[in-house]
Amino acid sequence: MSRIGTRELIYTNPKGTAMRRVIRPGNYRCSQLVAQLAHAWIAHHRATALTNSQAYTRVIRLLAEFTDGCLAARGLEAAGHGWTERSST
Question: For position 89, what pLDDT does the model report?
Fold first, then answer.
């Protein structure tokens, strides 16, 4: 289980509806990358007063899934802060 926590953003859309977007970096092999992207996404959302963040969360998830697939295909897994080859035993 990862120690990297969930990133959550709650905002109001143009219709006045409260919206909640969540990214859980710990769900991905590349959790540190996802956490950094999620942090930047929330900062960007707040700095620019966006009214919708659905596309941002979708892109972060797609990139994380792609990266995870590449890492798995190469037999790599997270080990602390680095990457190691997965043992064949």
Answer: 44
Nearest by Cα to 27 from 43, 50, 41, 6: 6
pTM of the entire predicted model:
0.77
- Residues linked to residue 84 through DSSP beta bridges, in sequence order: 77
- Give the H/E segment covering residue 8: strand 7-12
| Residue among 39, 10, 44, 4 nearest 24 (CA) | 4
Nearest CA among 25, 20, 30, 28 for reference residue 6:
25
φ, ψ at 86 (rounded to 5°): -70, 135
